[in-house]
Structures are given as C-alpha cells and as structure tokens.
Write a structure and sequence with these properties.
The protein has 257 residues and is mainly alpha-helical. It has twelve helices and two strands, in the order H-H-H-E-E-H-H-H-H-H-H-H-H-H. The protein has two domains: 17-85, Orthogonal Bundle (Arc Repressor Mutant, subunit A), CATH 1.10.10; 102-254, Up-down Bundle (Four Helix Bundle (Hemerythrin (Met), subunit A)), CATH 1.20.120. The chain has a two-stranded antiparallel ribbon with strand order 1-2.
C-alpha cells in the first residue's frame, strides 16, 4: 500500500477541472445544498463560480455516479442520490464529508469503524508478522519520532505505521478496509494539526503497540490499539470546535499544493 500525500487528502487531482467540478457538486450534495432527488445544476449554472466545460462536467458527473452520489433517472435528468447509496468508504467521499461538514456524529461513526477494525488487525499482525513487517513498522515509528509533529515526514510515518500493521495482518479482505481507515486517520491529523501535546502523548501508545506485535501478543496489541483509537477520537472531537471556528481551514488544506 502506498502512503498518500498528506497535503492532498483526496485521490482526485484538484488541479484538474473535472476534479474541481466533482468536488463542488459533491460538497453541495453532502451538505444538503442539493437535496436527495434534486436535479444537479448544469455546467451553465456553475459558471458563475468556476470555469466549466461540457467535457469536464460530464467527467465529474461520471465520477460522482461511480461513487454513488448522483444517479441518472430516465426522462428526469441527473439527480442527487440518497445518502444510503453513497460509497461512504471511498476516500474522496470521506474528504468531501470533512469539507462539507466535519460534524461530531460523522466523526464518531468513522471512529467506530476504526475501533471495530484496527484492534482485530493489530491482533492478527501480532500473530502473523514477519521480520520485514516489524522493520516496516519500526521505520514508520522512527519517522514519527524523528520529525516535528504534523510535519509531512511525521504524518507520512503515522499513516505508514497503520498501513504496515494492516499489511502484517496478511488478511486481504481486511486490507480492503485500510484505505477508509487511513483516510479517517489522515483527516483526524488535519483536524488536530497544532496540538503538539496530543501528538506527543500518542507516541508511547504507538510504541507499545509495536512492542506487543514484536512479542506476538495479539490480545495485548488489540487492547493497546483500542486505547489509541479512543484517545484519538477524543482529541479529534476536541479539535472540531476549533476547526468549526475556522470554516476555511479544511478547504485551504485540501487545496494546498
């Protein structure tokens, strides 16, 4: 698994016109500005805010359709799909959620996913890890400890730490959930950026998870991972109020080159 660029928490390239159109429409759908069943604005409607070509608009709609956000109805046009049809584990959909409304309910739901998945992954990693897996996890932890909190190398190390544990589980279906978990972690780091104390407090927890995996103690690895996820949820929620007081913060980070 390849660690994504922290400065770009979406997989779509925001520098491409169709990516900008897709993002604008998606945020409007997720925020409720375009309600379920409502017709999408056409390219002419969007031109007041963004330069839109017919080709870029069609490509954006194609992307949103694949992600479940829009649907084409015979004789009634392209409309916003109901929430139950959205691919909520898609990394772009997750990012658009955070940009549209990083609310407490959504964050809690994502961390419930982490709490169900990551402890089990840590348990399997402890049971199945190889020497190469340990080396990979250790290298990721060094990147976290050897670089300033929330710097790009540090964040890449944090994401790599969790990705390496997924890889060490040697369970392909579980690894299919890794992208959603890592995207959640990535956005959690965006929200918490600047809280150096919370980051410093998390480092011993990461190290203790590694030690449990080295010792092949699956139960202990699972318990320690559960504690890490819970602590991360609490610090993330504490940061949400700060972010909501700066409504442009996430959008600025999302478009950073």
């Amino acid at each position: 698994m390849r660690v994504r660029d922290f400065s770009r928490p979406t997989t779509l390239n925001p520098d491409r016109l169709f990516g900008q159109v897709a993002q604008k429409l998606a945020v409007a759908i997720i925020s409720g500005d375009i309600g379920a069943g409502a017709l999408l604005p056409n390219e002419d409607d969007l031109r007041a805010d963004i330069s839109v070509s017919r080709t870029a608009y069609r490509e954006a709609v194609k992307i949103l359709t694949a992600k479940g956000l829009v649907e084409a109805r015979p004789k009634s046009g392209t409309r916003a799909a109901p929430r139950e049809r959205w691919n909520l584990l898609d990394t772009d959909v997750l990012a658009w959620h955070f940009e549209a409304d990083p609310n407490e309910k959504f964050i809690r739901d994502l961390f419930e996913l982490r709490r169900f998945v990551e402890p089990s992954v840590a348990r399997l990693a402890a049971q199945r890890r190889t020497a190469a897996d340990i080396a990979r996890i250790e290298a990721a932890l060094r990147a976290m400890t050897d670089n300033p909190p929330y710097s790009d190398p540090c964040v890449r190390g944090d994401l790599a730490f969790h990705e390496a544990i997924f890889a060490a589980s040697q369970n392909a279906p579980l690894q299919c959930l890794a992208s959603a978990v890592i995207a959640t972690l990535q956005w959690s780091l965006v929200l918490k950026k600047g809280d150096d104390e919370a980051f410093a407090d998390s480092l011993p927890d990461h190290e203790n998870i590694l030690l449990a995996i080295i010792d092949r103690d699956g139960d202990l690895a699972a318990v320690r991972m559960t504690g890490l996820v819970i602590d991360s949820l609490n610090t993330t929620l504490a940061s949400v109020n700060v972010v909501q007081g700066e409504p442009d913060k996430i959008a600025r980070i999302n478009h950073t080159k």
